[in-house]
Design brief:
Distance between the termini: 41 Å
Oligomer: single chain
Number of strands: 11
Length: 124
């Protein structure tokens, strides 16, 4: 059974940093991070291919967020820096099964499994 468990959310000041983790069990997957702010639709943040070679980022986070994965621990890490109030949201980790080794999906409908979400609040 596939399980995704996120951690690392919290309250941070504008300009600060946080690192989110997503521990996966039950296989190796292409992984994505999405977020949803109050009153807004869920949006893609970052994704990494199953072989960790390729990553993609939303324009809004390019240069500030970095997604990586430790295969030995089957855990993904979303390092977030230079946070601003628009980054406030619930962040979700997602996994896509049966995808190519090098592909990165940016659409939430393409993902099969989801974590419970972790709140990130950026205060000024």
């Amino acid at each position: 059974q596939v399980q995704l468990v996120e951690s690392g959310g919290g309250l941070v000041q504008v300009g600060g940093s946080l690192r989110l983790s997503c521990a996966a069990s039950g296989g190796t997957f292409a992984m994505g991070w999405f977020r949803q702010a109050p009153g807004k639709e869920r949006e893609f943040v970052a994704g990494i291919s199953r072989n960790n070679v390729n990553t993609r980022y939303a324009d809004s986070v390019k240069g500030r967020f970095t997604l990586s994965r430790d295969n030995a621990k089957n855990t993904g890490f979303l390092q977030m820096s230079s946070l601003n109030s628009e980054d406030t949201a619930v962040y979700y980790c997602a996994a896509r099964r049966g995808y190519s080794l090098t592909g990165v999906s940016t659409t939430d409908k393409m993902y099969d499994y989801w974590g419970q979400g972790t709140q990130v609040t950026v205060s000024s």
